Amino acid sequence: MPVTLDALLAHPDLGLRMLTSPGPEGAALQVPIRWAATSELDDPTPYLQGGELLLTTGLRLPPDRAGVNAYLGRLLDADVVALGYGVGLVTDTVPALLVQVARERGLPLIEVDQPTPFIAISKAVSDLLTAERYAEVERGFAGQQALTRAAVTGHAPGVVSRLAATLGGWAALLSPGGKIRHVSPAGARPSAAGLADEVGRLRGRRHAALSLVHGASHVVVHPLSPATAGHAPGRGFLAVGMDRPLGATDQSLINVATALLSFDLEQTKVGEVTARSAALLRLLLDGGQPDEEILVGLGAALLTNERLHVTALTGPPDVLDELLLDLIARLDDHVFAAVVGGDLLAVTADQRDQDVLLARIPDDGRVAAGTSVGSSAAGLAQAIHQARQAAATARHLMPPVLDYSQVRRTSAVGLVDLPALSAYADSLLGPLDEYARATGIDLVASLAAWLGQHGQYDPAAASLRIHRHTLRYRVQKAAALLGRDLSSVDARMELWFAITARQRTLSTPTK
After folding, report:
1. Helices vs strands, H then E, count in the chain
2. pTM over 0.70
3. Which residue blocks in 168-308 are alpha helix, DSSP H?
4. 164, 225, 175: which is closest to 199 by C-alpha?
5. Which of 116, 151, 180 is a domain's end point?
6. Per-residue pLDDT tens for 484-511?
7. Under 8 Å between Cβ of 388 and 339
8. Residue 133, phi then psi, degrees to nearest 5
9. From residue 428, how far is each of 45, 107, 475 by CA, in Å?
10. Burial classification of residue 351, based on how many CB atoms lie within 10 Å of its CB (0-12 exposed, 13-18 middle, 19 or more buried)
11. Runs of H (alpha helix) within 194-241
């Protein structure tokens, strides 16, 4: 459950007291708190992100009604959850004018007694947030295990029932035409039946999902896709409804259920193999860790080996489809392969099997491959990310195969001649260069610092001697100019390579 004012007020060591009305049915007490911040500024909003409990001693509190009203208005506009006033330093009690205006504006106001240091409140919020995150991780892990066991023992109906019970809502497996195949609990059938029109909007859009409010439910609908990247029709839809907005753990469990249902619905031998592989690989990428019994039960005994090798191949979907079928025919149960997220991912336990796989790559430049550092089953998700990074780099640099160790050691810059490096960097970074010429602001330097600090704003901003909010704006501006989603590992890798390539071309003397 989220950390709320109610939980903080109930903390036995803080002695906090609510001075304003909690609102209808205690609504003000149930608003989630993201953090506790301290500020004596008349306008602290530039340094807030929303969702904070703001703590102050009233050192610069305006003395008049208009000033107090404006101050509280700024806090409300910044989505501050509540204001905590510490007594005993500036005033012995909370000013009556502040209490009155807070009640009028609907901002929760809390009295912090003198013996309670602000740091104790911040620590209490931090502890509660940590406990909440841990509980969500535990809930997600237990839910993933339960869904996977349901897939082994109860197949599609078992997954649907377990998902509904785990989320505390309803779930339905729908046919491609929107008809109900399975629904749980049975009383949710009218809600699921009313989604036929919405399902029609998704038909033919295999990778799209839909989120809507349907009656009193928050509903998501996910298409169930075949494992291969070709144009085979979808197998139906998974619809889920809850009486509250979905959280990150809820969505993760729905993704796992979608993956499990997708492979359960495949009928052909090859379809069953590739669907099972795709579903399990997606499960691992989502953080799932099925135990050995589950892996064996799903026909994935290969993943129980102590040493595994991951290969990622990127290229045209039809070529990857042909490669996938070829690998299954040649290596059979010596490979665990599927197309996931547009990449062909293949896991082998024997280096010789990986060599066979790599030898099947066409030599016409349409497919690039990346290989991971050897991994155990527990580290398979990281190995998949490594192989994908290497494949993404190979795609731009055009060697047919690139190992992640090469990416890690050299950033792969040394694999291409200087003219090619310069042309590649200028092509990708061109919009940022134009912006610099027009404004004098070097967004390339800002991106380099941010990427060099692994996406952490504070150390990157410190290295540039600018405020972190300024850096955040510049990074967002660069992403918009480049048309890149910087939350994507591939996008960050691509930009880091381009920046490194430019630095190398600039630092290498011409002959």
Report:
1. 18, 15
2. no
3. 189-193, 196-202, 248-264, 269-285, 292-297
4. 175
5. 116
6. 888 775 677 778 778 877 776 665 554 4
7. no
8. -65, -40
9. 36, 48, 15
10. exposed
11. 196-202
Q: Which two tokens stand for residue 6?
A: 């109610």
Residues in the chain: 511
Which residue is it, tokens 């960050």? 492
Total domains in the chain come to 4
CA distance 154 to 47: 52
| Torsion over CA: 99, 100, 101, 104 (sign) | positive
Among the candidates 410, 445, 478, a domain finishes at 410
Residue 448: which CATH number?
A: 1.10.10.2840
| Residue pLDDT, tens place only, 131-141 | 888 877 888 88
What CATH number did the domain enclosing 384 receive?
3.30.70.270
Tell me which residue has tokens 């996910």.
Answer: 222
* pLDDT tens track for 121-163: 999 888 888 888 887 788 888 888 888 888 877 778 889 999 9
CATH at residue 228: 3.30.450.40
Residue 447 in contact with residue 499, Cβ under 8 Å? yes
Edge-to-edge strands of the sheet including 335-340? 335-340, 343-348, 309-314, 368-371, 401-403
pLDDT of residue 409: 47
Residues 302 and 243 reside in one and the same domain = no
Q: What is the mean pLDDT of residues 168-195?
A: 86
* Cα dist from 108 to 3, 17, 98, 99, 146, whole Å: 15, 11, 11, 9, 41
Q: Which domain holds residue 239?
A: 139-265
